[in-house]
């Protein structure tokens, strides 16, 4: 007698492929042939996976077309089978897959659009914390400012691309009608995604603010974060960037880090 683990492994293999394999002898006929029974589960699995991918990546599907997307999602599923019981996680590696498959093609930007759409899902489902204001700095000694740690909110993501993904995102929303041409060489994007009470908001950040936020995500103290931002962006202004991030309610906590 086969163990439960062996039966489950055989079922998964049969559902993911076009052959019943080791599972067929374990299936009771009872009026429907084993292969037909397995095919029912196989079809349900494929349709459910496709529907999940379509819900996660509607803009990639719109850009590539339904037929291309179906084939792409199927090939992705074969190469990156899910190891999670949560369908939400099914598409987590799709941007990596597209980056490899579409490299050096006119459609390489699809990978960054997929990264943006996956970030949207993460922000939508992440735990969150309330934002903080500069009022907390009233209790901080001025000599400790360089050691301040600005902790971003959990329901926030930053996606950077050499392509204008922010404009592409908005141009391909269901309620947007536009005849304007989008040029892939129009410049890069630094897109902040942040969850509000009833939606996920997307904002294009300046290079300077984006650089500062990345440093904060790495838990770099304010002094070193500002120095890195100055090096990366010649027009960096600390007060302007901090004000922008706080106005967007991107920071959950401000604490004083350890002395070196």
Tally of separate helices: 10
| Number of E-type strands | 5
Low-confidence stretches: none
Oligomer: single chain
Sheet/helix structural class: mainly alpha
The helix fraction, in percent, is: 40-55%
| Rg (C-alpha, Å) | 24 Å
* Main sheet overview: 3 strands, antiparallel
Mean pLDDT: 86
Provide the spatial order of strands within the biggest beta sheet.
Answer: 2-3-4
Can you write the helix and strand succession as a string?
HHHHHHEEHEEHHHE
State the end-to-end CA separation: 63 Å
Globular, elongated, flat, extended or rod-shaped: what is the shape?
elongated
- How much beta, percentage-wise? 5-15%
Summed up:
The chain has 260 residues and is mainly alpha-helical. It has a domain at 108-256. Helix content is 46%, strand content 11%.
Provide the fold topology:
Elements: H1 4-16, H2 34-56, H3 58-64, H4 66-79, H5 94-101, H6 110-125, E1 148-152, E2 156-161, H7 165-171, E3 189-195, E4 200-204, H8 207-217, H9 222-232, H10 238-247, E5 251-256
Antiparallel strand pairs: 1-5, 2-3, 3-4
Helix pairs in contact: 1-2, 2-4, 3-4, 3-6, 5-6, 8-9, 8-10
Overview of the structural elements:
The protein is mainly alpha-helical. It has a domain at 108-256. It has helices spanning 4-16, 34-56, 58-64, 66-79, 94-101, 110-125, 165-171, 207-217, 222-232, 238-247, and strands spanning 148-152, 156-161, 189-195, 200-204, 251-256. The strands form two sheets. The protein has a three-stranded antiparallel β-sheet, sandwiched between helices. It has a two-stranded antiparallel ribbon with strand order 1-5. Strand 3 and strand 4 (200-204) form a beta hairpin. Helix 1 (4-16) crosses helix 2 and helix 2 (34-56) packs across helix 4. The longest helix has 23 residues, at 34-56. It is elongated, with a radius of gyration of 24 Å. The N and C termini lie far apart (63 Å).
